[in-house]
Structure formats: structure tokens, C-alpha cells
Amino acid sequence: MCGIFGYIGNRNDAGKLVIEGLKHLEYRGYDSWGIAIKEEGNSILLEKDIGKISEVDSNNFTMQSNLAIAHTRWATHGGVTKENAHPHICEDCSIAVVHNGIIENYEELREELKQKGYDFKSQTDSEVIPHLIQEELKNTNDFAQAVRSACKRFKGRYGLLAMDLNSKTLVAARTGSPLIIGVKKDTGYFIASDIPAFMEHTKVVQYLDDGEMVVTNGESILFTDIETGEEHPKREIEITWSIEKAQKGEFDHFMLKEIMEQKDSIARAVNQNEQQIKKLGEAIRNSKGTFLVGCGTAHKACMVAEYFFSVVAQEHVNVTSAGEFKLYNHFLTSESLLIVVSQSGETADVLEAMKIAKSKGAKVLAIINSEGSTIAREADDTLLINAGPERAVASTKALTGQMAVLMLIAYSMKNKLKEGKMLLLETTSLINDMLNPRYIKFIEEVAENMKDESDLYIIGKSWNFPMALESAIKIQEVSYVHAEGFAGSELKHGPIALVEKGTPCITLAGDDEIFPDIISNTIELKARGANTIGVSPIQSDAFDTWIKVPNAGVAQAIVNIIPIQVLAYYLAVKRGMNPDMPRNLAKSVTVK
Ligand code: G6P
Question: Among 259, 343, 406, 469, which residue has the most ligand 1 atoms within 8 Å of its CB, making it the best to mutate?
């Protein structure tokens, strides 16, 4: 949460450059923004406001400058106000700081600094950072040392950028929240929470690891350990993502673009190194207890996988949300296996689950989309789903990629990897046919008919049950319609009391042995006056509206969620919402 971006080098348009780059990080937070620019004459121009960074005109920041930092905020401590927006500056206005994360001991530090005469202008935890750095500068002339000493006093998680007018340097430090350095020879250094900020300038990156800091004057860069000051050598890595894949192209929103990309992204997920898939399958087989965790949509992928492991591999795995993993630690031994699933590779609760597992000596495997992310680097082994950059807050193509990879692992455990691959590739081509303009139009019409409803329910059984939960997430988060998912069989135990005449109820079904059961549940809804919508390969009289999907067997969950993603998208658009930027949400949840 929160996006940060800074530049130092020999370009003289640092202000405009960081505003433009920051717009690519808007998915990380979009309630307010701010920028600090080192102007000619060595002063800081500070500008911040509430509102979206995408609406800021970068042409307002064309003043000559080779050093600037900027921030797009997702509020944690302190409401959404101009004062609480970053950057925060020190008393003599020579230091500006942007911060992502939470300084947990900020109240204590704030009190201490207030006693020393520092004046606080915001309610944020972050404002202690520039003041504490300034205080530390009383003991040293070295700006980087002062940042180091300040960092040693912080408890909590942070990724921070601090710029200093006196030394004309930019310092970045991280514990918990991601920071990546883009390197462009003879041009300078770009430091951001995520790669899209600087992808148009360079694809050569260096990752800042937890407990590390970096100082640069724009010509050279030095990585050190925050605690010891020891120098850390860093490799330069060339990333493979293309700029086109990270942009909207012909689509109005990233969400629709990413939904439509699934015909290719699932195939990319399937195109895995077979040995690697088998290795993961063997690790599950050999473990004395496998735990599968993720958050939000990734957690729903884990829930579907539980059925894959049961039906295809006859292997028991334990699934829980990463945020609920803490008390599972009593089940963990050095022979346990934790598999984490995450699109961003930065989710705080997932990192916490990894820490718990590692403290018990358990092995950690990660199924990730973002190359080089913290989770990818901290896991014992990683499998990339290769979905390409996912920018919309609502996860779509990452989910289907995660499910595809998990399904392959289940097949590999039965020595049927080829069969699994074939099924998934056939499914990809069925999805390709399904996502034709007529089909999309049809779902848009379903959304039009539903757009004024305030409540909506979704039911499914087996792997369609987690997809019912995921459908509810998708609809809630982008359209703000109250949506809830249930297991079909649970209806009679409470939820059916909510159904009134005309309530839209969606049934997710497959052409399988449980089809009659889910149809019975649908009939029960219809009998209470529900307006029933079936997402199913087969028609039924129980459906008032039928959204036809191809029959995909074990891969049915992957297929069934796609029309719901389209429906959620159009519900949002028709209700006047921006599906790429749902209120109160952020794509990468780096706080617990
Ligand atoms: C946020 C996003 C969701 C995502 C979840 C987990 O809530 O909005 O789309 O599913 O975090 O994120 P991860 O990056 O770990 O998959």
C-alpha cells in the first residue's frame, strides 16, 4: 500500500519524471499524493493534495531539477488530508521523506521529538522520520549515517526514501515494504515501490532486501546493511516484462484488459518447467503436513486447489487465509511444507505466515506472479505463474494462473502432468472462443438488468464453492453491490432467509455428478422468488438467465469465474464506478 518513487541523476526534469512514473503505481493507493523537488538554488518545492495522482498534470512540474521524490497514499495513520499526504519534511526544510508501511513505535518517538522542540504538522506515523533524521544529524555530518541511526530506532515495517539538500543525496531503506532500484547508466537511479514506475526508462533493476539501505548521489550507488553498515554487493537483473503488457492499450480499464488476457495468461502459466512442477508435487507428497495459504483472491485459489489435490491427487492439504495462519504454528514441524500463493509477492500476512513456518524449520514454496518480489526471494523455491503485470486492484488473470499451476501440481502427483497440461491448454482455447464480442455484450446486458439491485447471492458446490466466494469479492470490490457467496448446500441453514422476490442469485455449475444437487439449490432459490442466473455448461429450467460456459471438467472453476469477472466489471462501469480504483482498497497489501 502506498506507492513511492524517487529519481536522482543527470536529467533535469526530475519533478515531471517522478509524477509520470508514480501514475503507474496508483494501484497501490490513491487517496492523496505529494512531491518534493530539489529546485535550483537548493531549496525544496513541496506540493501535496488529496485526490488521485492520475489527475495531476505533470506539466506543472517542469522546473529544472535532478532530484525528486513522490508518493501516492493509502491512508493508515491519520485521515485523508493534505497535511497527512507525503512527503513530510524536517524543521529546516532540507530533508524530505516518503514512506510506505507503519512505524509502530511512532507515538513514543513523536513524544520524544516534541519534547526536543520538533513541531508536527500531520497525524501520520511517517512524520517522525524526517524529524528523527534531523535529530540524528546532530551526531554526524553524514546523511546516510543519520538515516541509518533513525532506522535502527523504528519498529514496524517501512520502505522509505529520504532526500537531502545538503549532501544532494537520495537514501532508501527497507524493512518489510518493497523498494526496487532502476539503474540507467549515465542517466541516474530510479527508486520505486514497484517496477512499472520506471519501466519506460530502464529494465535493469537491483532489489533492496529487508534490512538494507542504499545511498546514491546519482552517479554511484552503495548498498549496506542497516544494522552493521557492512557493504552488500548487488547484482543487476534485467526484467522481462514489456511496457505494452503494463499499459491499458485499447481498453478503457486495466480490469477488462486483464480479464481478456486470460486466454493467453493461462497458457503461459501452464507452460512451466515440468521438473519444477514435479519437484513441488514431490515436496507435497514427502511433507508431513502441507499448508496452502494466501490472502483475498489468492486464498480462493488455495481453496479451489484443495479440491484439485483431493480429486486429482488424493492428497490432503490444509488451506487457510494467510492472516489466520498464526495459530496453526502448533501443527508445524521441520517436516511441514508451507505453500504460499500471492500475485504481488509482497502481502504482509503472507510474509508473516512464511516467518512462522520458517521459525519451525518448515520449508516454504511460493507461487507468485511478480518476479523478484520479497516472497519470491524469501521462499525456498518459487514458481512464477507468468501472468504478466496485473494492474487492476481486482485480481483476475493472476487467479486463473494460480489455479492452473496448482492444478498442474495435483496432476503431476499422479504422474499425469501431460494430461493436466492438455486439459488446461484445451480450456485456454475454449476460453478464447468464449470471450468473443457477442458473449461480452450478452454479459454486459445481464449487468444492465442487474445494476440497480442492492443485494446479490452466488452459490456453488465443490470447486465452484470457492469461486462463489471469489465472485462475491469481485462484485463487492468494484461495483459496491452487496454480494455474498455460499456453498449451495448451506443455503437452507440461513442465507435463504435473505432471498426476496427478484433477488438476483447466481449459480456456478459444471457438467458433473453434482449438477443435480446445485440445480436443486437453485430451484429452492427460485421458489422464493429469486431471479436465477446460471453459469453452467448445461442449460436448466431452473435458470431464468443462462450464461453458457464451455465444459472444462476439472478446470471448470477456472472457466466459470471469467464471466463473473466480466459481470463485475460491467456492474461497476454501469454504476458509474472506476473498476480499476475501488474505494478503500489497494492492490498490494503490505500492512497486516
Ligand atoms: C489485495 C488485492 C487482491 C489480492 C490480495 C492478495 O486485497 O486487492 O486482489 O487478492 O490483496 O494479494 P496478493 O498479491 O498476495 O495475491
Answer: 343
